[in-house]
Amino acid sequence: MTLLIRNGRIVTATDDYVADVLCEGETIAAIGRNLTAPGGTEVIDATGKLVMPGFIDPHVHIYLPFMGTYAKDDYGTASRAALVGGTTTLIEMCCPSRSEDPLEAFELWKSKAEGLSACDFTFHMGVTRFDDDTPPKLRQIVEAGVASFKVFLAYQGFFGVDDTELYKTLRLAKELGVIVTAHCENETLVAQLQQKLLAEGKTGPEWHEPSRPQEVEAEGVHHLMTFAELTGAHVYIVHTSCDGAVQAALDARRRGVHVAIETVIPYLVLDGTYAQQPDFEGAKYVMSPPIRSADQQPLLWNHLASRDIATVATDHAPFDFQQQKEMGRDNFTLIPNGIPTIEHRATLLYTHGVATGRISLNTFVDSVSTQAAKLFGLFPRKGTIAVGSDADLVIYDPDYRGTISAATHQMATDYSAFEGWEQIGRPEWVTVRGEVAVRDGAFVGELGSGQFLKREPTHF
Fold first, then answer.
1. Superfamily assignment of 2-52+388-400+424-443 in CATH?
2. Which of 112, 89, 45, 66 is nearest to 288 (CA)?
3. Of all helices (H) and strands (E), which one includes residue 195?
4. Got a GO cellular component term for this one (predicted)?
5. Predicted model pTM
6. Which of 36, 110, 281, 306 suits 148 as a labelling partner, its CA being 20 to 30 A distant?
């Protein structure tokens, strides 16, 4: 297929100019003014629109057995929702329990995406146990094209690793050139605080945040930084929710630690009062680390504007309010953690970041696309608009106005955390490797067309 996008305002992490983009087959063939194309070329007039590289969500959960249930989306609903939101590549957390074989888990997670996803996809391989059998299996997974690991300093007895396992994982990652993504809390402190609150009869969702306060997250980051400094491993802190955690990472960066920082869109637009809503409505907003007090939001926005925070992801973990979130009605520790956001990450960031002047368009592109590509071995194939790059493109209409609602979203969940919120702009057209997947804001792609992206380690 040949596609010509005319007169769009091309925005990358560093550039902003008006030009045409010619896509031939799966890649970008030419960029310039007044380009010509052969007969039969589909031509899109992007006058007045923004043309950006396809967005990359570096932190999603789609297939997820967790807290006695399973995440609601599959790759059919999730990739459709992602594409409508402009996301063309997903990086999923492959999260086996401590009792599962990592090779078998990797093949299982991969099988859930192949033949169903309309997005391109890859994985962070969860390391939830480290024994004598682990290194050769992780080496095989890296050879298969996975260049990042995931560790949890939380979820004691299920996902969490101890300090010996953490050290060995980081040391192996350094040897292999693999970056380690990390959920930073302190599982012992969380477990003790949960027990204390429940013993006091504090069982509602409003007590989730006090059981995992900011100090616990900041301590988890500091703990990881010590291990990263001593091993030389490159690390990436997922879903950073508060200034204390960011500062712990920045302090380490100034000491020479190789650390990148992610936040997720709920922390930028929601505050702790949402989890305090009565009649168990607050359960819709339970995620870990928790949504923080409103005073943290401007601090996170400032860190994003300065690009100290590299990426804005989702930590998409979709569970229904009915039946699933309600599992924890009498005990907040049993509420499945997560907020479904894969569809609305970019529009929320544009609405509350770009349109308000908090961040620039270039920083927007950097945080939703380019940095993820660079950190996780996909650049310049993904994450930019350049000749030879994959023709993953988003034509964004900044004049569109709409309302978010569970009645119209593509995700499988029975609620939206942003019900009734106004949005400014939307991805009007989206292409994946030159094929139109979204036209006039509606999904028109082909389920199963997404490819597994093999990546080479780059963090030696």
1. Urease, subunit C, domain 1 (2.30.40.10)
2. 66
3. helix 187-199
4. cytosol
5. 0.97
6. 306
